């Protein structure tokens, strides 16, 4: 290991001499040595600590390194850590507010139980952990005994991916429940990416990442990294990286129905009608073939078949559907193919509509056909210190191993689309969901037709939520078990190093010690798993019992120490010595050796994706004949929002209101609506009232509401307070419209807008 500037570079390959088998576990060369060190060292600050500590912001996928200034045990300042090899000092407004969650008076720290009296009045009362565990285990076990395992539904929210304990222990608890009714925020977000990766590269999380620091042409569909700092592309400090891209003569071109923060700083921006990106992308592939611009790698199969499939998707066909000129589409394809290096990337805007998987497939094909796959400046696969893909720590994925009971929607990777959850709860019969376990999620605000889902949750026999807030979803729980917050627990990002634009590793010990009456999420999951196993009388062989016990009682830090030791790229000892993180270097070509397909080849036209083109053809007729007063609704995210939470944080909610419906001034005028006036927005599913603002940034015919708003306070005080006005976009989104992968369609929802009465 050698210092370079103010960073530490760790060389590739083994980081210490190989143990010959003669050494004891406490010898530094023994593979278990680091596990022992990891067990023994952890030092949260004391109550009267004054000084600085390094930490990590895990509010979003950018995983920025932070530096906390602490005075007598109180955080007085948070800034970006300049020495972090990935985030390099960057921090966004949310990161500055990390400690607000830790000190939030609304945050729960003890289990609470909902008690409803005969008059229907609800009261929440605190209870002890042992009593709470017993109650939850009793009720879940009784549900299984009476109605079977599928009677328990599970929902994992987005923060589950950001907590090490959830990754190491939460998934083990979910697996032990052995229910087919598993749901998560993935099916309202990213399943198309996983669905395509599984078919092309053999693993659901084998997602190529744009090599943003070296590319010369960055093509962006439906993504806003200036606000998000990347998603399924961990790219902290995107604004700085973009400035560097432009300084070296590179370009960023954006297609989006809104002139987003990213579109505003792009070299070029083109409006594209919501839901039509697929035809634009396929038309670009058509141009590549028609003009002989394809240079696929030798391990890519069925190129000719793809040529035939995209033959009907001419730029002229795409223009009237998408609003993007045929000449623009041709030029985009030519520029992409001609660039010194290029990377195509698409995110929420193109994943969360009815053809999200076709979009993600076409984006992969753009990179694959132009020689920009697995090359510097193109798209590449990170090689994290803990390789969750290559080591199969997360399974490869599978499709249609079972189906939902009511609508017969196929599962993907063990999960059913969350859009079917409401009907699985409300429809009687064998396999009906009668009890729910939610973990760090608020599906009432974040999944389609949230109002109806709230009604369904209210009718459950039992519900338990592992969550730090009482919110629109957890208010329906019988018991809430609150884990510690981010600054109180150890963190290693098992997931997001896998999507990062540079190979780095960082372990962050807890900054603050937990109170003796608090529990970490992994402790909650372990306690529930053990009690459920005993109540359900699960008889396992002694060896399996010991493995299960060890897995659930070892702390996440111990698990990570072991995984690092066996990965042999960097050790826990090194990470503890360098809490700013260690640099493992830029992304490198790894293909085809790292492909997870059986034959180490890529099939460009997998049947599930190629087969969906028929549905796309059929849909094109409808998109050309919208009713005259119809508009298309899209979502949006702000840098100060974190999905449905942080809306009770004063620091992040001041300033101009962000909840308005955005629409083009011409669309306002056509309907006789005034700028700032209240309007009624109506879809097939529901209706909401909200203020409308006219902005030229919207494509005419398109309106936008932010995701995660619409906090409700009717009747009870929600800890997750309603300091932010607004409505839930998911009272308008339609659970019947799904991508072939099962992902929900939030973008391109047909709505009408009229003056509120
Ligand atoms: S971009 Fe902001 S919210 Fe995301 S990790 Fe960095 S500081 Fe945190």
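Q: What amino acid sequence fits the structure above?
A:
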């Amino acid at each position: 290991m050698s210092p370079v500037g103010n960073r530490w570079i760790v060389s590739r390959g083994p980081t210490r001499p190989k143990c010959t088998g003669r050494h004891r576990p406490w010898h530094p060369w023994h593979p278990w040595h680091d596990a022992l060190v990891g067990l023994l060292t952890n030092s949260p600050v004391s109550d009267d600590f004054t000084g600085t500590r390094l930490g990590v912001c895990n509010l979003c996928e950018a995983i920025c390194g932070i530096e906390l200034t602490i005075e007598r045990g109180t955080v007085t300042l948070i800034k970006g850590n300049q020495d972090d090899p990935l985030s390099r000092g960057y921090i966004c407004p949310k990161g500055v507010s990390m400690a607000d969650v830790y000190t939030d008076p609304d945050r729960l720290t003890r289990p609470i139980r909902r008690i409803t009296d005969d008059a229907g009045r609800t009261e929440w009362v605190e209870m002890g952990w042992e009593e709470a565990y017993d109650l939850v285990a009793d009720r879940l076990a009784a549900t299984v005994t009476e109605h079977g395992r599928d009677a328990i539904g599970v929902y994992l929210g987005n923060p589950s991916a950001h907590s090490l304990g959830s990754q190491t222990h939460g998934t083990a608890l979910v697996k032990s429940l052995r229910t087919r009714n598993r749901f998560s925020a993935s099916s309202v977000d990213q399943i198309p990416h996983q669905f395509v990766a599984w078919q092309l590269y053999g693993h659901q999380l084998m997602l190529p990442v744009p090599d943003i620091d070296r590319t010369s042409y960055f093509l962006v569909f439906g993504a806003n990294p200036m606000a998000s700092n990347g998603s399924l592309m961990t790219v902290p400090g995107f604004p700085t990286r973009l400035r560097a891209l432009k300084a070296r003569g590179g370009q960023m071109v954006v297609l989006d129905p809104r002139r987003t923060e990213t579109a505003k700083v792009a070299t070029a921006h083109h409006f594209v009608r919501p839901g039509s990106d697929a035809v634009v992308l396929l038309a670009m592939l058509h141009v590549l073939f028609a003009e002989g611009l394809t240079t696929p790698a030798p391990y890519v199969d069925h190129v000719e078949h793809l040529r035939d499939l995209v033959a009907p998707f001419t730029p002229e066909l795409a223009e009237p559907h998408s609003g993007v000129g045929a000449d623009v589409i041709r030029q985009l394809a030519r520029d992409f193919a001609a660039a010194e290096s290029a990377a195509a990337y698409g995110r929420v805007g193109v994943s969360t509509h009815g053809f999200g998987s076709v979009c993600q497939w076409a984006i992969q094909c753009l990179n694959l056909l132009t020689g920009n796959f697995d090359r510097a400046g193109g798209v590449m696969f990170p090689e994290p210190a803990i390789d969750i893909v290559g080591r199969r720590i997360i399974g490869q994925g599978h499709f249609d191993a079972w189906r939902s009971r009511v609508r017969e929607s196929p599962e993907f990777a063990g999960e059913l689309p969350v859009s079917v959850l409401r009907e699985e709860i409300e429809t009687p019969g064998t396999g009906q969901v009668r009890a729910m376990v939610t973990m760090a999620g608020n599906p009432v605000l974040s999944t389609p037709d949230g109002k109806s889902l709230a009604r369904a949750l209210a009718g459950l026999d039992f519900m338990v939520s592992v969550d730090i807030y009482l919110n629109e979803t957890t208010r329906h729980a019988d018991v809430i078990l609150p884990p510690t917050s981010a600054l109180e627990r150890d963190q290693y990002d098992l997931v997001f190093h896998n999507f990062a634009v540079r190979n780095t590793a960082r372990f962050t010990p807890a900054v603050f010690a937990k109170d003796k009456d608090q529990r970490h999420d992994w402790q909650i999951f372990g306690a529930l798993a053990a009690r459920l196993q005993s109540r359900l009388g699960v008889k396992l062989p002694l060896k399996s019992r010991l493995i299960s016990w060890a897995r659930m009682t070892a702390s996440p830090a111990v698990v990570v120490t072991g995984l690092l030791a066996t990965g042999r790229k960097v050790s826990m000892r090194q990470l503890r010595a360098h809490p700013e993180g260690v640099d493992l270097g830029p992304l490198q070509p790894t293909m085809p050796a790292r492909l997870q397909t059986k034959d180490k080849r890529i099939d460009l036209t997998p049947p599930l994706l190629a087969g969906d083109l028929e549905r796309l053809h059929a849909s094109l007729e409808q998109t050309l004949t919208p009713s005259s007063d119809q508009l298309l609704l899209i979502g949006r995210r702000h840098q100060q929002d974190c999905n449905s939470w942080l809306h009770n944080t004063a620091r992040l909610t001041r300033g101009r209101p962000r909840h308005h419906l955005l629409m083009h001034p011409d669309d306002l005028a056509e309907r006789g609506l005034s700028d700032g006036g209240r309007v009624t927005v109506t879809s097939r599913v529901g209706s909401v009232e909200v203020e409308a603002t006219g902005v030229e940034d919207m494509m005419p015919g398109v309106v936008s509401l932010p995701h995660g708003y619409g906090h409700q306070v009717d009747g009870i005080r929600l800890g997750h307070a309603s300091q932010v006005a607004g409505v839930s976009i998911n009272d308008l989104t339609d659970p019947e419209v799904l991508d072939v992968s099962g992902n929900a369609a939030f973008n391109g929802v047909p709505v009408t807008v009229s003056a509120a009465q």
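Q: And what stands out in the fold?
A: The longest strand covers residues 687-694.
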